[in-house]
Amino acid sequence: MGTRKKNEAAPSATLERIERSIHLIRELKVMLDADLAALYGVDTRTLVQAVRRNVERFPADFMFQLTKPEFEDLRSQFVISSWGGRRYPPYAFTEQGVAMLSSVLRSERAIRVNIEIMRAFVELRRMQASHAGLARKLSALEKKYDKKFKVVFEAIRGLMAPPKLEKKGRIGFSPSSSRRK
Asked: Is residue 117 part of a domain?
């Protein structure tokens, strides 16, 4: 069997982890600095320092920093914050920004991880294109058949739609609501 370094994940596990780390922010598919740092096996601080030393390689369409409301909204989608007490909102890297990271982080692991990330973005585009093709075929069928099947088509469209994220209320007790007068 091949030898695998301590911090190296199996390729399929890495691909799954990468796909879970891709977020839709400002209608862009991005990866956050902390997720990328974990994949590359470096501290988030180290990754951000490397980017800041080479900031000319990262224009706004490659990388941007989340606003505080975006950060709070993203954090509220997770039960437990994986960013643990950050003082500043994270940086988000588009696919091009992730590709540019390979020129900034020059380790062998960075090269392997970048290849896997590029494959994950390609797979997401392929799935998105497949989804669009399915939607076109469904529309054609809908036009072809009469209104008897309208309910069926609406149900199928409902299944195809991405899940809507609900804003959840705060969990726990507030001092004012737990006291009885």
From this structure: yes
At residue 32, the pLDDT reads 92
What is the per-residue pLDDT across 128-178, written as a single tens digit (0 to 9) for each?
Answer: 777 777 777 777 776 776 666 667 767 777 777 766 655 555 555 556 555
Residue 180 lies in a domain: no
Residue 154 domain flag = no
What total of structural domains would you count in the chain? Answer: 1
pTM of the model: 0.58
Report the alpha-carbon distance of residue 70 to residue 30 in Å, rounded. 13
Q: Which domain holds residue 79?
A: 11-129
Cβ-Cβ contacts under 8 Å for 180 (sequence gap 6 or more): none
Amino acid identity of 110?
A
Q: Which residues of 7-36 are buried (b: 16+ CB within 10 A; e: fewer)?
A: eebeeeebbeebeebbeebeeebbbbbbbb
Is 173 within the bounds of a domain? Answer: no
**Span 59-68, pLDDT tens digits:** 999 999 999 8
What is the C-alpha to C-alpha distance for residues 117 and 96, in angstroms, rounded to an integer? 11
Give the end-to-end CA distance of the chain in Å, rounded to a whole number. 69
